[in-house]
Amino acid sequence: MHTYTLPTPGAGPYSLTTGTDGNIWCTLVHAGRIARLTPDGRIDEFPLDFQDSGPTLITNGPDGALWFTRNRDHRIGRITTDGEAHSYPVPGSDPGPYGITAGADGALWFTTLHTATITRITPAGEFTEHELPEGSFPSFATTAPDGALWCTLNQGNALARITIAGETTLHPLPTPSAAPVGLAAAPDGALWFAEIGTGHIGRLTTEGVTEHPLPDVRCRPHAVALAPDGSCWYTAWATGRIGRVTPAGTVTEFPLPTPAAEPHGLTFAPDGTLYVAQESGEVTRWDVTL
Prior knowledge:
The chain is mainly beta.
């Protein structure tokens, strides 16, 4: 385990992804910056054009660049692996872009918290909106192996499946007020997700939903990531811990070095190590071989 402190105080590391360059890329939600962490521990920060833009979730794009949502100034950002940044204004009034994923169609797809849409943006900046249930607060997004898009409906208590053509199917959750957030698609087509409202990690398959209760149901699980061995790792925002759920449902938790870490995003590097973004100002690198 190794912990990296970001150069900018109060930057707020929030979301992580592994770039095509093999580096870890991180949004700094409070500083209006994107950080790059190299395997040898070097950290570079790239300021955006607006400090209060609120860069939130980040993903790899089909063009080799990193794409991310700017939640506070309602734009979609793009940054190359050389650190050159650009952004596109999202249509609508106060949309609140949040989740983002690369689609199988060569475009990016993102959710809007306030206007309840999942929207397609091409690398050239062209938008196509698809409506979701009003007030459903669509949050994280991911792409399944079959090419469909999925997102969590935090206030709709459901997962939504959206085809490339925009056809939507809702999958309600069995537990009221589960408030799903983090979401990841497994190679076998299963969807893993975090229920921040009830302290469960859920798994959706063709056979239905399985909910795994966590040791402390008040831990506020936030993001999820899939390990090479098929287990699901999650951040427990309220308790400063990370955890692992196996496909068989065995749950194990581990404390982060800083009790008030406020862990949010996490991602696996090409070498199988796990990086965890902590809003308190650090990124922790874990060897999670068990």
